[in-house]
Structures are given as structure tokens and as C-alpha cells.
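User: We ran a pulldown and think these components assemble together. Before we commit to crystallization trials, I'd like a predicted model of the whole complex to look at. Sequences follow.
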Amino acid sequence: MNKIDDRLKFLHYQIDEDWQHVIVIDEAICQNCHNKQCLTFCPSGVFRENKEKKQPLLILYKQCIECGGCRLICNNIDFSYPKGGYGVLFMEGEEQL
Amino acid sequence: MLTDWYKAKKPRKIGKQGNLHNESSNVKKYDVIVVGAGPAGASAAYFMAKEGLDVLLLERGPFPGSKSCGGTSLIAEHTHKLFPNFWEECHCERIVIQQGYWFMTEDSLLSSSFQSMKLAAAPYNHFTVKRRSLYQWLVDKAKAVGAFVYFNHHVAEVIFDGTQAIGVEVSLPQKSRFFANVIILADGANSLVGERSGLIPRVSPENLALYVKETIALPAQVIEERFNLSPGYGSLIGLIGYPTAGFNGTGSIHTFKDSININVGLAISDFAISGIRPHELLDRVKMHPFIQTLLIGGKTIEYGGSVIPEGGYHAIPKLVHPGLLVIGDAASLVNGTHGINLAMWSGFFASRAVYESKKNRDFSVKKLSLYRTLLDESFVMQDLKANAKIASLQRELPYLFDLYTKIANDTAYHVAKVYSMPKKAKRKFIFKKITSIQPILKMASDIWKILKVVKG
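Assistant: Here's a predicted model for the assembly, 553 residues in total across the polymer chains.
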């Protein structure tokens, strides 16, 4: 198990199944991107490489901790905050509900 | 694997709070709407409601502090002036009597630290607080004096009439609009409301730092033993050098009642080009031989991250617009390690300006500029101005923290180590060692640059 997943278990989320708040604007750009800084940058590992050519990136938006940094490192990433009440919850030490 | 993890996190029902107002209250006009219930927004809401203004505070999270992790330190004097004897109301974790900086290399640590019982009595100097209890306390205060607070309300955009801000648009699930004479943006470092409404330019990734943080639980007594503290007292430690892996940036350790925070951060642009994974950088700090021993037996209970404005004075956007003020992190009001107190003071100054505007029924830039004037005259802007060149110095000397920390540790090592060579030869040897790392002239020029910035 990689370290990100170990850490995510401390977090709570109100998951929005209907709307993804982090998106890649044009997947074709990702196909030709050799840097892929998003893969290492994200503190909660939202961006993962995908074997499929058509969709080179997986966006695990449900584990986003909403720092919003990704939109600043890449113009091809669009980040909004989740809808009211959704997204990450920091509830230190409390049992997951 | 992840699917199981998602399944384990069952969605909870989102409260209907505020939905009642969707239709009927659309006609209602508040004196002021505050976007974001952090330290800046909640303080502003409190001071305005206290003056009898009709205040609506909108927060996207379901409770105060739900979007921020861990804790921080609160400067006693700054807070006491706004909220007298706040330590009797706000739950503070520890009274800070020890402040230190640790200059670290891979295997060494040179520290400068001060501790004094003078800092242990009222009016104190610093407290450590958990963000959640701090935000909750401020929101409760605002509520108690009559501010309306709606949680689960995410403001997407400002509504304008011409150039005059007249309200805000709340996104789904409410999809409603609220109107007011003045809008106060306190939506944090990543002010998307300000940016999407065309009021704040997109932040540069060089001016925003990403910090990752872990909260590690340890018994109070263990913390006190390891940090050499009497019960109830705490330490704040800045970590410089090794923690940021060659980049300019900092780490820190905060002690709370029965946990500690350890964090580390770099400019977003540095994280991006370095290819360092933030959580791995944090692990690297935790594995340092002199940090590891502090954490023995500790249990991580939270992980998180956030962005912090670090562009300083020159990164401050336009703060006063027709019918709208920008405060706190959204206004880039962070000075080194000082942020929360600047946020609260900016909220207070904004409240004065809104109060005067309401009295005169004038919500123009001219009238609301009282906010900027009060900020400029206060320690907030004066201190930011005094440190204005630090951001550019760090850019000019990207090796500043790392290299000089190494040199200082090397020097300390050779001074501490006992050699069989005569003292005079040893001094020569040390001098040669240091100047082999950085030529003497280059060092002198860097020191000159630093002194110029410090002198202002």
C-alpha cells in the first residue's frame, strides 16, 4: 500500500457522486505531456497515471483535500471547490461516520 | 482497493439548513455578506454584528474549521487587543514559552532557542490552538451578537450591478442568491471567488506555498518530557534547511495538549519542478535522526495540506472595490509565519469601514477605502512593507536556506570536534573548509543583500 492511501484513512469525505470538481480540460494535451507534474505534486494523490491511451490520467477527485494548488501548476487542470457541504472534512482523531 | 475505501466513507446527509431561505429571502437585503468563516471572515462578521449590522456569513464547509487541518499558534497581544482575555473563552492548547529555530542538515542540528517563564504569565506571547476550536469560537461569537451563519453554502461568484458588487451566487445544492450592500471576500489563499469575479488576478505559483502536515498523538506528559516543558506549556520550533530538500521553505513543529503537528512546505512552483511528492518530503523530515526520536510511540491521527500566501507586500491585490472588500488570506495578508492575527485584524478593519459606509449610506470605493487606510496605518501593512523584499531575496538566492544551514552546521561541527592539531591551525582549517563551500566574496555579498533586506 502506498503512503498516500495510508494517510487518506485519517480523512473524512462527503463524496459528491454527481459532480467532479477537478477536471482535465483537454485530455489530448496530457497524452503529449512528458512532465506530468500533477502526478507528484498533489498532496493527496488525486492524479494517477492510466495505461489507457485515450485517458492518460485518472482523476481521483473523491480523495482531494482541496488545497487547489493543481490549477496553478498546470493550465490544463481546472479546479473548483466542491459544492456546499461536499468534499473533505478534517475531524482529527474522530471515528469515521 | 480504493473502491473499498470509498465505500467505507458513506456519504452523510447534508443538513437542509439555509434552504428555507432560498426563495423567500431572495428579496431580503443584508447590510453585508461575508464569504468564508475562517479567522478573517468570522472576525469581520463578529465586529459588524456587534455594531448592529445585519450580517450574513456563508461557509462552504458543514462546520467551522472543517476544511482546515491541525493547529497553529496565536499571537497573544494581537488577539488580546481584539478579543480581551480571549484565553478565558477560546480553547487554547498550550502556553508557548519556548521558541526555537532548528537549522538542520542530514545528520546534524544547530539550534537557536529561547525559553522564559516571563512568557508564561498574562498577557502571554503565543498560544497553540487547534484550528477547529479557534474557528468555532469565532463563529460562535459572531452568532451570539446576531450574525446569521449558513454552513454548506459555497459561494461561486459575486453578482454585480455594473461594477458595484450587490450580492453573491451560491452554487448547488442551494443554487440561490443573496444580496447585500457590501460583500466581504474572506475565502482564503486560493480565492476562486475573487478570481472568477475578475477582482483578484490569478495567484502566481511562486507566491503560494503548499504545506503538508501531520498531527501525531502523544501523551501530554511525553510531550512535556521530550520538549523540556512544565505541564501546560508548549514550544514552537521552526525547521530550516534539510526539511525542504534544497529549496527555500520551512517546516515547523507545534506542540498541543496531547498531540504535535509537524509540517513542511515549499512554493508550489518548487514542488512542481522538483518532482518531490509532498507527503514524501514530510516523511523525510519525520525520519531525520533528531526528529524521529521526538515522535517515538506517536500515532498519526491526521494528515492534511493547505496553501499559504507567501508573496508578501508586493503580492497584495487591490483590496477595495465598489461594494466589496478583500480580507485575510484572500488579500494575501500573510507575513512570514504570521497569518491568523493579520486575518483577524483585517476583518476588524473591514468592519470599521463597512460600519462607516452604512452610516453614510455610501458604498463606493472612496468610502470603503477606510479599510485600506486603517490597514496601512497598522502593524499589518507596516510589517508587511518592512519584509517586502524577502520574497524577491529568496528568488535571487534560491540556495539561501539550504547552503547557509549547511555552512553553519559544518562550522559548528568543526568547532565542536576536538582535534589533535593546534588551535591556530584548527581555525585556519575551519576557515578553509567553509570557504571551500562558498567563496568568501560571494558569502560577503549575500550577507550584504540579507542585511539590506532586514534593515528595510
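The mean pLDDT of chain A is 89. That may be worth checking against your pulldown data before setting up trials.

User: Thanks, that helps.
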